[in-house]
Amino acid sequence: MSTRRVEVELVSDFNLEILGRYLVQDGLLPECSMRSRPFGQVYPALLGDAGAQVDFGIVWTRPEGVIPTFAAAAALQPIDIDAAMREVEAFADAVARYAQRVRFVLVIAWMSPADHRGYGMLDWRPGLGIRNLLARMNLALAERLAAHGTAFILDPSPWLQAAGPGAISRKMWFAGKVPYGNGVFQEAVPDLKAAMAGALGSARKLVVLDLDDTLWGGVVGETGWEGIRLGGHDHVGEAYVAFQQALKALGNRGVQIGIVSKNDEHVAFEAIDKHPEMRLRRSDLAGWRVNWGDKAQNLVELVEELNLGLESVVFIDDNPVERARIREAVPAVLVPDWPDDPCLYAARLMSLPCFDAPAVSEEDRARARMYAADRERRSALGQVGSVEAWLDSLGVEVRIAPLERADLARATQLFNKTNQLNLSTRRLSESELIDWASAQHRRFWTVRVRDRFGDLGLVGLISLELDGAQARVVDFILSCRAMGRRVEEAMVHVAVGSAQRAGARRVIADYSPTPRNGPCLKFLQSSGLTRTGGHRFMWCGDAPYELPGTVALVGPADHGAAYQGTEREDRSELHVASGAA
Amino acid sequence: MLDEERALDLIYDAVDEINGQLPADARLEKSPGTVLFGDAGVLDSLALVNLLVTIEERISRAGGPTVGLLDHVATGGETSEETMPLRTLGTVAAFIVGTRKACA
Q1: d(CA A261, CA A298)
Q2: How many interchain CB pairs under 8 A, A with B?
């Protein structure tokens, strides 16, 4: 994760200073520096224009503090539900306006104090109960903010539950206008940091597991696959099944599963392939290293194979010695403490605050299948004589299209999560992307890739800035899973061709080095572009940049029509996206 | 049985909680002589109120007496810096134990 300190602003109707102090001091990433608005001035803070832009705004209010009709309801007065909903809409619109001034907004959902019984047994009755009203208000807030891709709502109820009997602090409220005990703020910090890390593109993407006594009970090498504890009339076996189901659920939100285990591979996969209670199968795994070698070394090799960074990885092992080994040898990997009791495994996994992402795309949900397809591709590489023949056998299709509304979430995800083949590594929110790409002198395309093994989905982005005879490639981004198939050269072909048709005779690409984007430099050095000193690469004149023979470029009409002479059409489509977003 | 040693342990737990909010160079030392009030006190008003309330809660949860540390401050219960019962962590512990005895 980037070590840049993020600027955070707190907006609240109560004294939120203690949360700010914990956010600054807790030691979790990202590090924060804090700006507090005077509490009690929620609407001026949300609607005002003053102040420098911050990375995150945290909006935490009490419903009775910002929704007058709810305050009346909390005082057990008869209320007008419609009036409450109008006030919620006004609040949501204020948050939406605030979201245009800060990069991301984290809104804490409203909650009623646990010690306010409201109408008791009538409290969920529509039109009367406080809890019914509050649920409707939260739902209306969520729906009103759903269109704003940089505003997220967090649920505080787990923080109150975890904080226990000290969650509500009446004395701190009367003495300092702090409604909650320290425990609530301490519990909130990991969730808030997870949301921040996710918004910044730093969510963990791969869970690497041990097998024996982690994925199943017992040692498969000693008992054989028939003897492991998994499912059946056995609470421990049931617990391992629940853990595997939790892992599959993570897979559904785009987190990949890998195996690193000290075992004989064929013995381990007998269990994975044959045991009837296994929930995770070979096709669910992004990759594995099952041998008797050092786990740290195996882990590093597996992560390299998957083209991920070590900071994307979570390692789970029941053995504290192995956990300590990974922590020491590969400190970028997150190694959570792990419970001794298998009954707690699933809950522990699902409570890890490191997988939060600002969007879940179809590409995320299909990632396990994509990695399985990639294993088949690598297998095919071993069966053909040369890399060129292998590339030819893949049947790579690259589809270029203008940025459309439906692609905004995925495009933003690529901006914020792609590190290796990324020319500028600039990070943009949806609104920032729309603003940037809407300028008349800019071009922006999405890149989709498929081959005979499957559809990789939207995996790349290209943007150009035109300036008379010169065009600059601003963004050149390709997901690691599409690298090495000459898609990169096809993207240069698209950029150069479009620039030349717009009248440019010089196309430049300024590489901005980071600790992670060495693969981008390596590609540029071998791309045929001329290095003109420093980190600038250039293509001059009218000569076309050839499309690789192993790649078929396809578009809405033909391979040229995606960019040939359709720049104005591209702009109009983008304007549609901009207007709607 | 709440004696001064046990009261100090609970006070130190509360100090840990407050120290989690403070930069390293501003954290309270867990020592009976650590000064809370007066020129030598290092906590700002919010942190001081938070510490006193947290101590009250921890004493209560441990089965100790209801001690009105914050009330004592609010009602001007202290006299001078040298003699006020909440001047240091150690005197707070003594004040709590004294409250227990008074209640007994």
Answers
A1: 9
A2: 42
| Stretch among A46-60, A179-193, A428-442, A492-506 having the lowest mean pLDDT | A46-60
Q: Are A57 and A197 in contact (CB under 8 A)?
A: no
Residue A553 vs residues A322, A400, A494: alpha-carbon distances, Å: 47, 8, 9
Chain B interface mutation, best of A24, A25, A170, highest count of B Cβ atoms under 10 Å: A25
- What's the ipTM? 0.89
Q: Is the pTM of this model over 0.80?
A: no
Burial class of residue B59 (count of CB atoms within 10 Å of its CB; 0-12, 13-18, 19+): buried
Mean pLDDT of A359-364: 78
Contacts of A419 (CB under 8 A, 6+ apart): A309, A425, A514, A516, A517
Would you call A174 exposed, middle or buried from its count of C-beta atoms within 10 A (0-12, 13-18, 19+)? exposed
Q: Which of B22, B46, B56 sits opposite A25 (nearest CB)?
A: B22
Residue A570's pLDDT is: 41
Q: Which amino acid, residue A322?
A: E
Contacts of B49 (CB under 8 A, 6+ apart): A172, A175, A176, B70
**Nearest beta carbon to residue A17 from set B17, B23, B46:** B46
Q: Cα(A126)–Cα(A129) distance, rounded to whole angstroms?
A: 6
Residue holding tokens 């919010």? Answer: B46
Dist CA A248 CA A365 (whole Å): 11
CB A90 within 8 A of CB A78: no
